[in-house]
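Hypothesis: this fold can be encoded by more than one sequence.
Test: take the structure tokens below, design a sequence, compare later.
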């Protein structure tokens, strides 16, 4: 099977900033990349999509909706005094 060689779309010199970050210019609309660093010094960024590992259960979502409705309706408890609890942890 013959190998295909792809030419780079952009080529430029980048430098790291004071926090050791590199800015990717004209990056595609991907927010996340898999970064592979090789022992010879080259780095490969592969765009990827991050998906949630677990869905929130339906009962949990319903409870959140009820809690928000109560908050908007003003059905809230009195402020909780946590000073005694804080004394236990100090």
């Amino acid at each position: 099977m013959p190998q295909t060689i792809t030419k780079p779309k952009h080529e430029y010199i980048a430098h790291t900033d004071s926090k050791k970050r590199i800015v990717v210019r004209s990056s595609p609309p991907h927010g996340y990349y898999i970064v592979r660093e090789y022992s010879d010094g080259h780095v490969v960024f592969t765009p990827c999509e991050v998906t949630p590992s677990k869905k929130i259960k339906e009962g949990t979502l319903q409870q959140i909706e009820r809690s928000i409705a109560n908050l908007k309706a003003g059905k809230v408890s009195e402020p909780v005094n946590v000073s005694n609890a804080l004394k236990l942890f100090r």
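The longest helix spans residues 58-73. DSSP finds two helices and two strands in the chain.
Hypothesis status: open.
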